Amino acid sequence: MNYNLNELFEQEKKKSTYAGLKDLFKLIAHERKNLIIAFFTILTDATLNLLGPFIIGHTIDKYVVTKDFHGVLVFSGILLAMYIGALFTKYLQTTLMGSIGQRLLYTLRNAIFNKLQLLPVAFFNQNKAGDLISRVNNDTDKLNQFFSQSLMQFISSIALMTGASIFLLSINFKLGLATLVPAVLILIFTQLVSPWVKRKNAATLKSIGGMSAEIQESLNNFKVIIAFNRRDYFRKRFKETNQENYNAAIGAGLANNIFLPVYGLFSSLAQLIVLAYGIYLISIGEFTIGLLVSYLSYAVNLYNPLRQLASLWSTFQVAMAGWDRISQILSLESNLAISDSNVKEPSAALLEFRNVSFAYPNGKEILHDINLKLERGKTYALVGPTGGGKTTTASLMARLYDPTEGSVLLDGKDIRSYKPDERSQKIGFILQEPFLFTDTIQDNILYGNETYSNYNSEQLTELIQTSGLGELLAIFESGLETKVLSSGDSISLGQRQVIAFMRAVLRNPEILILDEATANIDTVTEQLLEKILKKLPESTTRVIIAHRLNTIENADEIFFINSGEVTLAGSFNEAVDRLMHGKRSS
Ligand SMILES: Nc1ncnc2c1ncn2[C@@H]1O[C@H](COP(=O)(O)OP(=O)(O)OP(=O)(O)O)[C@@H](O)[C@H]1O
């Protein structure tokens, strides 16, 4: 299955802004009450602001012209009270929308992160970590900015414009219609150019993701870069990505700025229409000066928010482009779904491959029509040339991937029918480069171990001793309290493998897979690991991938993996012979 988000984005039918908004509001449905309150404060604020010009016009015609200063004073007082009221509602809107924005950011980041935890290994193979980080951090913040800073002004502008249009039409219908013509033209223009503007913004967000991926890759591999003195190479690569981002940002900037001048032009045009047509109406006695003053104010009340909408519209387009990138992750389904097991012929083996074929997305077939069985309590070795498919075979055993064809049976049931916790309880997998979290060794050992998760250090130390792992723990001066920093970089790869080994063994799995798990360990420690492996419960099945031949000497069966085939090597000597003389697949 294709999980490449950037490729999928190009292929997908683009969602309309309306559909995008609908999805977004579903996510913040629980904020409905706060949104309604905010909406009403916005409406109140808009109404108070709209009543202003009407009262001014009324005061001029009724009290200023007739020099009734008492009336002027009363209406000035009313205006002041209204402006104070408007101030209060504005404050309420700002605090409400600010907190809704922050909560949205919080909810979204949690939702994306939780989704990422559910996605299969194939997703992470096909997407760069930096781009994903940028989606979690940067794209969500674009939405927050829109919600906490712009949405309120957005709704308030629309409310002001609607109110102003009603006043304009009700004061003088014909003049009102003429004033609204430029506004309608603006709406048509906005509708037409918005998809293009959104695309430009999406390109910028994509390039920010690309830049973040570039930074992440160079930071992760800084040792190689320094060792090979390839700073110039990464500098060049970064410069290119930065240039790409610069070009995209300039393009988006141009697109975003298109609204402001066009809106400005049309709003000046509307004022000209009001003035010219209004003066004409006064000259034929159909209009008064007071009404024209109010009218001009309403025209300003219509076109000023429209101008504000021009800048808000670009923020909205950026937010919607961000939302598209976020919702893309949220809508992904893991292809490692749990399904019913419908095995026709029963299997007595602990693990069985039935007609399994496998290819990585867009890649050639790595395994073709494989049948193999692993019995309880036996030790199996997987050997073969580099790139032959050993890790891939082991990954299928642990359901890191699903076969493209055929099925893997665990304990007689299709492995796809197990819940992830049941499956990982049965299978322990020590990866070639074990990953450790920034924490103590104790926490890293207990990671994912439900049985002992509440153990304190004394209990865990005792457990480690009784499980025969004491000598391994003794390698670390500070024992369980030893700190692991920055994904395991503070300790050696061999030490990392030892911790991963303890972690896997203490989970007491039915199958323990060791993928080159001793490749970086000294001979004495390796012998210690072998001793511990032998002491595992009799029913534990061991699957060992190793290039060092002594590691596989004691295996009950040896599988030779190459060129899409998995065959039984028969004896150790045959395996050695095939390794020495066999052709590699890649
Ligand atoms: N994530 C991946 N995406 C695409 N192709 C992959 C991926 N991982 C491995 N491959 C390809 O699959 C083939 C088998 O790789 P695999 O890691 O299973 O070999 P291996 O026998 O374990 O090699 P080694 O001894 O070097 O660990 C290789 O040709 C490799 O290029």
From TrEMBL:
<dbReference type="Pfam" id="PF00005">
    <property type="entry name" value="ABC_tran"/>
</dbReference>
<keyword id="KW-0472">Membrane</keyword>
<dbReference type="GO" id="GO:0015421">
    <property type="term" value="F:ABC-type oligopeptide transporter activity"/>
</dbReference>
<dbReference type="InterPro" id="IPR003439">
    <property type="entry name" value="ABC_transporter-like_ATP-bd"/>
</dbReference>
<keyword id="KW-0547">Nucleotide-binding</keyword>
<feature type="transmembrane region" description="Helical">
    <location>
        <begin position="35"/>
        <end position="57"/>
    </location>
</feature>
<dbReference type="InterPro" id="IPR039421">
    <property type="entry name" value="Type_1_exporter"/>
</dbReference>
<keyword id="KW-0812">Transmembrane</keyword>
<feature type="domain" description="ABC transporter">
    <location>
        <begin position="351"/>
        <end position="586"/>
    </location>
</feature>
<protein>
    <submittedName>
        <fullName>ATP-binding cassette subfamily B protein</fullName>
    </submittedName>
</protein>
<feature type="transmembrane region" description="Helical">
    <location>
        <begin position="151"/>
        <end position="171"/>
    </location>
</feature>
<keyword id="KW-1133">Transmembrane helix</keyword>
<dbReference type="InterPro" id="IPR027417">
    <property type="entry name" value="P-loop_NTPase"/>
</dbReference>
<dbReference type="GO" id="GO:0016887">
    <property type="term" value="F:ATP hydrolysis activity"/>
</dbReference>
<dbReference type="Pfam" id="PF00664">
    <property type="entry name" value="ABC_membrane"/>
</dbReference>
<dbReference type="InterPro" id="IPR003593">
    <property type="entry name" value="AAA+_ATPase"/>
</dbReference>
<feature type="transmembrane region" description="Helical">
    <location>
        <begin position="69"/>
        <end position="88"/>
    </location>
</feature>
<dbReference type="GO" id="GO:0005524">
    <property type="term" value="F:ATP binding"/>
</dbReference>
<feature type="transmembrane region" description="Helical">
    <location>
        <begin position="245"/>
        <end position="266"/>
    </location>
</feature>
<dbReference type="InterPro" id="IPR036640">
    <property type="entry name" value="ABC1_TM_sf"/>
</dbReference>
<dbReference type="InterPro" id="IPR011527">
    <property type="entry name" value="ABC1_TM_dom"/>
</dbReference>
<feature type="domain" description="ABC transmembrane type-1">
    <location>
        <begin position="36"/>
        <end position="317"/>
    </location>
</feature>
<keyword id="KW-0067">ATP-binding</keyword>
<dbReference type="GO" id="GO:0005886">
    <property type="term" value="C:plasma membrane"/>
</dbReference>
<feature type="transmembrane region" description="Helical">
    <location>
        <begin position="177"/>
        <end position="197"/>
    </location>
</feature>
<keyword id="KW-0813">Transport</keyword>
<keyword id="KW-1003">Cell membrane</keyword>
<feature type="transmembrane region" description="Helical">
    <location>
        <begin position="272"/>
        <end position="298"/>
    </location>
</feature>
